[in-house]
Design a protein that fits this description.
Serine Threonine Protein Phosphatase 5, Tetratricopeptide repeat
Length: about 525
């Protein structure tokens, strides 16, 4: 027997009228006919309901295939009693002592309630499906569908009250499942992130796509979905970088990690790998620079050693190894510099270049002010330098020796210079040259002044000579001014230059121009 025939049989049995005594024809007959019409109407309505429910149920089954219901859960179908072996088969009519016939109004109310519950369930199911519950609901979603199918079966069989209860149960399960969307979203996001970490782009895309069905505005899911498109290439680059690390090809590893971070800026593992490899590269560079610096130090290339060690220090400012190596190099550089300056000063002294010697000793003292050779050398150089400068002054400007004061100072300078021991050849030559200048400056030259015995003659730096016809003077080399004066005549003035070793010099002084 088909489900539809079973349902019709069930309905015909449910609405079987009560057994009554048949009254005589007449008024009672017409009343019996009215009851039959009413029963027929109820049967027709039930059939229409079953047809509509069957159409809906077939459409529902096409989308949600019915699973086999265990025998214990299936509602027992009402079957007709088997025919008697001794009596002819006839429809069984309920007596007044069996279950009362179904109340049409009650059946209508139960039917409406079942239909309302069905509509509520369909709305709850639609809400679930819009959230993608079929993808993440698992057993809970299957339980909702199972409860709904059981309620559908009861509805088709006309068990409206039990169908309504079944839909209530399905609605409750659906609402409970809808209440777990937050936890489901969180789990999907976590699973998606785990898939990204494992480089599984397909799994990550599925998790984030389903998460967006629950919350279409979720930024984590959107970013994760975008990252899932490139995560496999990122994962390949990460694996390549790891292999390069194992082979100690750190620069190649860092290149791979940088490419990965360019493709996926959110790839934290790539960012961490870059930091790790960069630290290893930095350590390698540091060790190489330290080694190069020490090698250069042992080769006495202190400048290169210091350059390498300073670069190593920039990589590891707190390195004790670098600090100690730099100290050794700086000490070596300091001693080498002192030796260099000492040699420079000594060479300058031998060349009697006292300014260079003085500067070199001063630079040594700038490095270490307690070095006695530099202290004495600077003092010696200063004395020599002062004498040399003063000698040079008089040698460059011998005319200043015409001054008695300068002449006196020059004579004292000669005595001071001679006390320097040992005198160098340059100093001896300067002393000799100045002595010659002083001697010449002290040797007088004969100057003959002729006049007219009427003019009063005076010589600056010598004095007034009065009137005379001829006067002979012995003057030291230098410049002199001779002045002649006479009453009623214009004065005359004449400058004469007395040169060392010059022959007798004649000068005529006469006032001839009348006023």
């Amino acid at each position: 027997m088909s489900k539809k025939d079973a349902a019709n049989q069930t309905r015909s049995e449910t609405i079987t009228p009560l057994r009554v005594n048949i009254p005589p024809k007449g008024l009672g007959h017409s009343r019996h006919r009215g009851r039959n019409r009413f029963g027929l109407a109820i049967l027709l309505g039930a059939l229409l309901l079953l047809v509509g429910a069957g159409v809906w149920f077939l459409n529902h089954l096409s989308k949600n295939p019915i699973k086999a219901i265990p025998a214990a859960e299936k509602p027992a179908a009402t079957k007709p009693a088997p025919p008697s072996k001794t009596a002819p088969t006839r429809p069984e009519v309920q007596t007044s002592q069996s279950a009362p016939a179904a109340d049409p109004e009650r059946l209508a109310r139960e039917k409406r309630l079942a239909e309302e519950k069905l509509a509520d369930f369909l709305q709850a199911k639609s809400d679930l499906d819009s959230k993608g519950a079929a993808d993440w609901g698992n057993e809970a979603y299957a339980a909702v569908n199972d409860a709904a199918r059981q309620a559908d079966a009861l509805l088709i069989e006309g068990e409206f009250k039990r169908a309504a209860e079944g839909y209530d149960r399905a609605i409750d399960l659906a609402r409970r499942l809808a209440g777990s969307t937050g936890a489901a979203l969180q789990q999907l996001l976590e699973d998606g992130q785990a898939a990204l970490s494992n480089g599984n782009g397909a799994e990550a895309r599925w998790n984030f796509s389903v998460a967006l069905k629950i919350d279409s505005a979720n930024q984590t899911a959107r970013k994760g979905l975008k990252r899932s498109e490139t995560i496999e290439e990122v994962h390949r680059l990460l694996q390549s970088g790891i292999q390069h690390e194992k082979n100690n090809a750190l620069s190649l590893a860092r290149d791979d990690y940088r490419k990965a971070i360019q493709i996926d800026p959110e790839a934290e593992s790539a960012r961490q790998a870059i930091a790790r490899v960069s630290a290893l590269i930095k350590e390698q560079q540091f060790r190489q620079l330290l080694s190069d610096g020490l090698t250069a130090y042992h080769n006495n290339d202190f400048s290169l050693a210091r350059k390498r060690l300073l670069k190593a220090k920039s990589l590891k400012p707190s390195s004790r190894d670098v600090s100690e190596a730099l100290f050794q190099v700086d000490q070596a550089i300091r001693l080498a510099r002192i030796d260099q300056l000492r040699n420079t000063a000594q060479s300058a002294e031998q060349a009697e270049d006292w300014q260079t010697a003085f500067d070199a000793y001063q630079k040594v003292l700038d490095i270490d002010q307690n070095l006695k050779f530099a202290v004495y050398g600077r003092q010696r150089s200063r004395e020599q330098l002062l004498v040399a400068k003063r000698l040079g002054f008089y040698l460059a400007k011998p005319k200043v020796l015409e001054s008695d004061e300068h002449l006196k100072n020059a004579i004292l300078l000669i005595e001071e210079a001679k006390e320097i021991d040992p005198p160098g050849r340059k100093l001896a030559a300067q002393i000799k040259a100045l002595e010659d200048l002083v001697t010449a400056a002290q040797t007088p030259v004969v100057v003959i002044i002729e006049s007219d015995n009427l003019t009063r003659v005076a010589v600056y730096k010598v004095g007034k000579l009065g009137r005379f016809s001829k006067r002979e003077l012995k003057l030291r080399p230098g410049t002199y001014t001779v002045v002649g004066a006479r009453d009623g005549y214009q004065d005359v003035r004449q400058k004469i230059v007395v040169k060392p070793g010059q022959q007798a010099l004649r000068v005529t002084v006469e006032c001839r121009a009348k006023i």
